[in-house]
Design a protein that fits this description.
Length: about 750
């Protein structure tokens, strides 16, 4: 070990000692806090039982119980903080830091050495032994080259001189690797990290964040941040780091619950779920578009992105035209326009009925209320007012109904359990007058009977939104009405109708907005239509947006330059400020695989491959299905010897199912469906849309032939190839895809599979 490394190891050991001391202290405190909580809880349980006979005692007990409750809550909070500290210290003990910077501030003569890790560590004398990677000063580590550098602080920009930058890999407290570097985080450690095999969970990239990724992570200025990055350029990694950064940066006012990430599929949600916890943060909320819509269309089967993809080849030219119109931003403007001119008489209300079908509020009564309101009222206000009037009328009816004979009879026939259930939090015999107790019970009985009416009012069921949307379609796109209503009869709704319909509903009823979400992230945004993005922005009006995508991987939408995309988003989402970042270096795959992917694209020259060496992709040409299958089996056997997981990625579900049938005896593969959340080891077979955002050590694509992959399937083939980290194999059957024929033979090895019979 050279002297520098010895000195650094000695420093690691010193820091570890401090960590060990703090860990012991925190663990002790944590156990104490746990004990205290359980004692208070026990106490609180007993306290809650005593003194409930006299009114005064009862009040006293209530106050005491309140106090005890607060104590438990405080203790639990304390416990949570200590548990988090223990977890953080344990992580630091294993690997206290990954970077060091030596800086010389203006006017100083001796440089200061700072170590950077996943969390801060302060010793007993308030010296910072480790700086959190998110601290303002740490940005120098990611951004600066040696010499004069600046960094942002809450007080403004500061300047310093960066004299040294050192990277470490520390495992179990031992320095495994150490490099000095001038540039941003150097290649050596990155090489090593990227060369590792794929894991069940994505890892954080905190030690090797690249400069342009750092710009995304630390952006706090823009309301709309658009990231356009080539496959494997670290978009997902960067946004997860960004979430951790934002939680640190705004820790007083931002919590993980105020952040929503739209992810492409459930597998992906599982895959990324460990990144934030590994950085000491809680996970944000995650949802797929399908889940989000399914919640809003209960009772209907909502077409998913995957259904759309599967069926797109069977659409007629007319259906395509209709879909294109519904997926244009102007369709949302038309909704706005429709509402601006909608006469109150054209509102499609429906009866509110009781369980037995008896009408409680008729459509005519509701329409009359709505029409009778002042003309200048906006639709949402008018709707709200109608609802208020209906609730008042309902309450009046309930009051009258409570005096009805059937109610009094019911009270007489209540058994004890029913009686106490109706009393709820009230106590029998504790009402000021006996009549009050009867009144209370009567009220509860009628409330139960008419709960369905409350429910209908509360959830706006008295507006027939489907009929309203149909009315809108009849005026705007009449050729699409029949298909919409036919689907509805079968309790189905097409994906392209979801965003416009919900938008119409929300604007009409003034509902559907969540003001509490501060950040909205959309991954794989190239698969979203503008109306969907407009609707999401409408749902989360206070949220800053981070949209990430790669136009080249679009399974549905045409290619767009980042600038054109930004211009279109600015026009339609109207953010106060916006910024686009392009990521052009692909980190996921070996240089050979990235070069192959690049060559598939007409504008692939803009992609930089990261210098990680590997095997050339392999193309196996086979004359027919039988030989193709033999080639596939051989390739699977061979790749399973060096990789834990081999992914057979297909163009669609039908092909995935067929291959599963052909391989299941020999390989026991797993056929992945859209409800699967985890990826097992071995051979996995999945259609490309379920592989979005994921990566695999080895990827095989089957039947890359003229018919299955014409030029128009470029995006699909590119996305399949870009899932491979270390090995890529393409098997062609008969005439190969024209996408492959245009590639230089230097980019792959070619093998012919031909078994002579
Ligand atoms: N700075 C980095 N340090 C270490 N690894 C990185 C870095 N940036 C990206 N990677 C790795 O590269 C791979 C691809 O990253 P990621 O999945 O975030 O890219 P992406 O742009 O979202 O990809 P895609 O759009 O193709 O799904 C991951 O294995 C990730 O860990």
């Amino acid at each position: 070990m050279d002297n520098a490394k010895k000195a650094e190891q000695a420093h690691v050991d010193q820091v570890k000692e401090v960590i060990t001391r703090q860990l012991a202290l925190n663990e002790h405190e944590y156990q104490k806090a746990q004990l205290e909580t359980s004692l208070v809880e026990k106490n609180y349980g007993q306290n809650a039982k005593i003194n409930t006979f006299e009114v005064d005692d009862q009040m006293e007990t209530n106050a005491e119980v309140q106090q005890q409750k607060q104590l438990v809550a405080k203790n639990l909070e304390n416990e949570k903080i200590l548990a988090k500290q223990v977890k953080t210290l344990k992580q630091l003990k294993n690997s206290p830091y990954f970077g060091r910077i030596d800086i010389l501030d203006p006017g100083e003569t001796t440089p200061e050495t700072l170590y950077i890790g996943t969390a801060s560590l302060v010793d007993e004398h308030q010296n910072f032994l480790i700086y959190d990677w998110r601290a303002p000063i740490s940005s120098i580590y990611y951004n600066g080259t040696l010499g004069k550098v600046t960094y942002e602080t809450p007080m403004g920009e500061l300047e310093t001189t960066l004299q040294k930058k050192r990277q470490f890999t520390i495992v179990e407290g031992q320095i495994k690797n150490m490099f000095d570097t001038n540039e941003t985080v150097g290649d050596e450690i990155l090489q090593q990290v990227l060369g590792e095999h794929n894991d069940e969970y994505m890892k954080n990239i905190v030690a090797t964040i690249q400069k342009e990724q750092n710009d995304i992570i630390r952006d706090t200025k823009h309301e709309l941040l658009l990231v356009q990055g080539v496959a494997g350029s670290g978009k997902t990694s960067a946004i997860l780091q960004r979430i951790a950064f934002l939680l640190y940066h705004s820790r007083d006012k931002l919590s993980a619950d105020q952040i929503v990430l739209f992810s492409p599929n459930l597998l992906f949600s599982h895959y990324i779920s460990e990144v934030l916890p590994s950085l000491g943060e809680r996970n944000m909320r995650q949802v797929t578009l399908a889940e989000f819509l399914a919640q809003r269309f209960q009772g209907l089967k909502v077409e998913t992105l995957f259904d759309c993809y599967e069926k797109q080849r069977t659409l007629t030219a007319d259906q395509r035209k209709i879909r294109a119109k519904k997926e244009a931003a102007s369709f949302m403007e038309r909704i706005q326009n429709y509402l601006d001119h909608l006469a109150p008489a054209k509102l499609c209300f429906s009866d509110i009925t009781l369980d037995g079908g008896q009408v409680f509020f008729s459509k005519a009564e509701i329409t009359e209320i709505y029409q009778g309101l002042p003309l200048k009222m906006k639709p949402a206000q008018r709707f709200h007012e109608t609802k208020n009037i209906l609730i008042k009328r309902l309450n009046r009816r309930l009051k009258q109904e409570a005096k009805a004979n059937w109610v009094l009879e019911k009270i007489d026939n209540l058994d004890d359990r029913q009686y106490y259930d109706l009393l709820g939090t009230k106590t029998r015999g504790r009402f000021q007058a006996v009549d009050d107790e009867i009144k209370h019970l009567a009220r509860k009985i009628v409330e139960q009977k008419f709960a369905i009416v409350y429910d209908a009012l509360y959830n706006d069921y008295f507006l027939d939104i489907y009929a309203q949307y149909q009315h809108f379609l009849a005026q705007t796109l009449p050729e699409s009405v029949t298909e919409f209503s036919e689907r509805l009869e079968f309790h189905k709704i097409a994906l392209e109708d979801c965003a416009p319909l919900l938008y119409l509903r929300d604007l009409l009823t003034g509902s559907g907005q969540n003001q509490g979400i501060a950040h909205l992230f959309v991954d794989e945004m190239q698969d979203y239509t503008l109306p969907q993005l407009i609707y999401l922005k409408h749902c989360f009006p206070q949220a800053k947006l981070t949209l990430l995508g790669d136009s080249e991987q679009a399974l549905f939408n045409p290619l767009q330059t980042p600038q054109a995309l930004l211009a279109s988003l600015e026009k339609n989402l109207k953010p106060r400020s916006s910024h686009v970042v392009s990521l052009n270096t692909s980190y996921r795959s070996t240089a050979q695989i990235t070069d192959f992917m690049k060559a598939l694209l007409p504008d692939g020259a803009t992609i930089n491959s990261f210098t990680r060496d590997g095997k050339l992709p392999q193309i196996i040409a086979s004359p027919d299905q039988a030989n193709g299958l033999i080639a596939l089996k051989k390739a699977l056997h061979q790749q399973l010897t060096t990789n834990d997981t081999v992914a057979l990625i297909t163009k669609d579900l039908a092909q995935a199912k067929q291959l599963y049938q052909q391989l299941h005896r020999e390989f026991l593969p797993t056929l992945i469906g859209d409800q699967d959340r985890a990826l097992p080891k071995g051979v996995v077979i999945l259609p490309i849309y379920l592989a979005k955002g994921l990566e695999f050590d080895a990827v095989i694509a089957y039947d890359i032939s003229k018919e299955t992959f014409p030029l128009s399937e470029l995006g699909v083939l590119y996305t399949i190839c870009s899932r491979a980290m270390h090995e890529l194999t393409l098997i062609t059957i008969g005439e190969s895809s024209p996408l492959l024929r245009q590639l230089s033979p230097k980019l792959y090895t070619l093998k012919t599979e031909l078994v002579l019979k």
